[in-house]
């Protein structure tokens, strides 16, 4: 779809968004179902709060304003909004029904397809959310190893075993909190030192924005194998994006278990757990993990259609190429404008992130200013380039033009020493992710 968004000097009219929000505050607690979509991540007073429509790479807010979207619905939109091949599959299934009283053949079809594309998929389990499959993986790993402790790195959903180690852990019993530990990404020596015979599973996102050091993931697999600990890859972001078979394919390494959601169904709610047959066999016996909507057929149909499309259209390669244009284009602009000491775009091409250096000032103020100015130019920007197959070269060209404009404003603001005075709305909140204050398990701790 051609980009029709024009550079403009107007902030969007967000009257309807604000009215909806006022109603929400009276009745919803919390107001958002996904923290990353909530008002803390989009500057109040400037950014829209509600989206009502999407087509391709563009979205429309409740007031009718159009934006290029680089959030991909926080991951799920891998092909594009209202993508015909997926929506047709959903419509066809809708004619026959949504959820049934027996198993559905699409469950078998999807599992066979996943087995073809995901390297460690000796067996496949289907569920609904990322947290579902992360927790199922942890439970089955505990049952298989007869151990309780878990090492993790990254974000793994809202369930007790993980959220207990974050700052937002009210309601999680201390006994549960005491079973999970974090480790520092890329620090194989620290992991080796801390692993012992009490650790059931080590779960991590194979990468977030920092690349693994050469051999890190392979060493991790080896260290886990030697220690009798199961290695779990949380591939919510990497799966079906960096390669069809996710990080396992991309880095040529196998995890004992791997979990997927987001990109695999272009927006429909479904999650997958893949892994070793001997471990997964426990789901047939002593480990309980079932849910009413697990076999909901619209999502199964969407997932099959999405994976086939990702495969046929070589989407991971496309995301890599298009994402590189944006990431490298941003960094070249920063260099050309003498801004590279203040800002850089980092990460993998399929999912990169704009960062600010400490010399630039308060990163949340700077991010807020950049968001404000990008939104003014019709780009729904939250700091990330979550690429999808529908982003066109016109979208990329336009976005780089906008960055050129906006970086000039950011430069002025930094040099003025008063970024805050440039802000029209409220300062953003920090993204909720466990990337600091690690509680690494000391080797000697008798826990
Ligand atoms: C890496 C990772 N793991 C797990 C989850 C949890 O997935 P969900 O929100 O679908 O439960 C997320 C969600 O953002 C995630 O990014």
TrEMBL record:
Gene Ontology terms for molecular function: pyridoxal phosphate binding; transaminase activity
Protein keywords: Pyridoxal phosphate
Transmembrane segments: none
Cofactor: pyridoxal 5'-phosphate
InterPro entries per the UniProt record, alphabetical: Aminotrans_3 (IPR005814), PyrdxlP-dep_Trfase (IPR015424), PyrdxlP-dep_Trfase_major (IPR015421), PyrdxlP-dep_Trfase_small (IPR015422)
Keyword Cytoplasm annotated: no
KW Oxidoreductase (keyword) present: no
Family the entry assigns: Belongs to the class-III pyridoxal-phosphate-dependent aminotransferase family.
PANTHER family reported for this sequence: GLUTAMATE-1-SEMIALDEHYDE 2,1-AMINOMUTASE (PTHR43713), GLUTAMATE-1-SEMIALDEHYDE 2,1-AMINOMUTASE 1, CHLOROPLASTIC-RELATED (PTHR43713:SF3)
Name of this protein: Glutamate-1-semialdehyde 2,1-aminomutase/spore coat polysaccharide biosynthesis protein SpsF
Source organism of the structure: Mucilaginibacter pineti
